[in-house]
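Troubleshooting log. The previous structure file for this entry was overwritten by mistake, so regenerating from the original sequence record. Sequence copied from the archived sheet and checked twice against the printout by T.R.
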Amino acid sequence: MAGSYTGFKMDIDADGCALITWNMPDRSMNVITQTVMEELDAIIDHIVQTDAIKGAIITSAKQGSFTGGADITMIQSLNRTESPDAAKDGAAELLEKSSSLSRLYRKLETCGKPFVVAINGTCLGGGTELALAAHGRVMVDDGHAKIGLPEVRIGIFPGAGGTQRVMRMTDPQSGLQMLLQGKTLTGKKAKSMGLVDHLVSQPGDLVPAAKTMLAEGLSAEKPWDQKGYKPSGAANIYSKAGFQLWPAANALYRKETHDNYPGARGIMKAVYEGLQLPMDQALAVESRHFASVLQTPEASNMLRSLFISMQALNKGARRPGNIAAAQLKTIGIVGAGFMGAGIAYVSAKAGLRVLLLDRTRDAAEKGKAHSDGLMEKAVKRGYATSAEHEAVLARITPSDDYADLTKCDLVIEAVFEDRATKADVIASIGTALPANVTLASNTSTLPITSLAQHHVSPGNFIGIHFFSPVDRMMLVEIILGQKTSDQALAHAFDFVRLIKKTPIVVNDARGFYANRSVMAYLLEAHLLLTEGIPAAMIENLAFQAGMPVGPLALTDEVAVDLAWKILQATKADLGAEAVHPAQENLLQQMVVEQERFGRKNGKGFYDYDGRNKRLWPGLSELVPQLTSPDRIDQIDRQEVKNRLLIIQALEAARCFEEGVITDVREADVGSILGFGFAPFTGGTLSFIDTMGVATFVDLCDELAEKHGQRFLPNELLRDLAASNDTFYGRFANASTDAFTGAIE
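Regenerated output below.
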């Protein structure tokens, strides 16, 4: 079979070195598929059986990329067993399938001939596990190449030997951090950890360096396969170092995950148990935990939302297909405050020229300085070069003249969230903007249709809602007004994709999608506080429920005075019954009487001292809290967690019924990226589906009876419950599972 592979090419030189070049046809990135596994298996057999071959090098023909890892849809399909036998036979079938890549890598590792993996760029997931299974690793150190095992971020964990080899090749503390955080490593970091043997400066130097390793007598026997091998240091579980590491590691795991993530739990089990066993048994333990994790709803939901759906949305699943791609080169941003400056930064970083306009040149210059500060930090941390720093700043041009907007291919209005201010700015932009150029408003609450009335061309007006801070938050809501054209929508998509954010399409409504759910989350926390639940308990139970930020801390980040202003605007527009009097009273005391505006003035629900913060002691005087042990013990902690999650999911269901959000993928991905809804659930609608809609409705009814009509389920939920249906069962279309790809 030598030389007749689909995804590989093998050349054998006069010294007996087999150069195996991975280059999958019709793919921009190599991906581990069933065919790739079968071909690699055959290649190993051929190399072992050919006496003339002394060793092998595996490299990639894809520029800047070795592999993105395993095909995620292949991993998803593992649970879809067709075995008609008993459940345990189905489990055995799953274990057999899910451990096949691990067995293949072990075959390579023990084949008796040395393999070197030459890493020319991105090498993630199963690709990194392949490199670790090889006997040597050479990597280009160009600032862009990276290796990593990011599987935990999408609900699973490295199941092809990654947990066992990492923990034997580097110090266990660093290994655990790598596995549990799913972070990627530069060449220098990987080499310092012992995961890479040699670095080269140019891709062309990789193969010669790998050949040198083979020529110098690279051993084909790993240390752990040698007689008498024992893990050293803390990898020896029952050593002094081990006793110092593992109890603390378990405590830290609990603190960071609250045991909500089966993938992270699987890592802890696999490494702890595996380090006490010979490698073959350790790999079997890893495979069993991997198969177990694959069967959890958390893994299924996270794979679907955080990979399949998110990749599809990133690739423009909701973009109108009949509109040619916009040739965006220069972006105008009107408003150089915190949000406008953030949008300018991500745009310039993506290679776009930016015209940053404000009322005065000084204000615009101050907005540009924001990018200077961010790039300076990136350079200090090794994430960017000085040349890249200078290039980003060179792309940003401050201005105070609306006439300069005539040079722009798309303009974003990002001024203060005030209807009158935005109306004036939109009208001024319209006088300078060419008729065919899209104007977008970065508004968080104001309906787009009403703002579009102030633009000379409502069809070219759209909402592009960024989340703060812009450089870190990955979601963007693209908001359609009643007259927004397909061209404006397509151009908004093109811009969002250029800056590498994830877009979701939202129809016009007050607060749109994300902010409606966020405000529901904050409201519930404020009401819990007024009921006497201690502030620390509210924050900690939110963490335990899976939220990354406690609701009181989030209120401070959003700004307490902004929450107060939104409340008053809502009351003015919709009437007094649209706001909860207990929340209004709390915010009035905080903002009007105590002048506690949040992090921005160092005083909110927390007191701030630089990066440090602590809950404001005066809260207990402002709002009496249950503090006696007997009263605290009576608090139903599970109910508090339910209230914090259910109110968000219920608001998402209402948005879906009202047509504010129309795609189940966007509802779930948007909820995780936009307001941090417990990622292990897969998002708001997956949370409801996994619980069972009927169960969710019953919980809502119970909460409504105890705490008010805000928990009453909407008609869509009752209909789904009555018909034993789900959101994904009724509303997911064929495109939901249409994306195929690897971990990136």
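Residues 637-658 form the longest helix (22 residues). Archived copy saved in two places this time.
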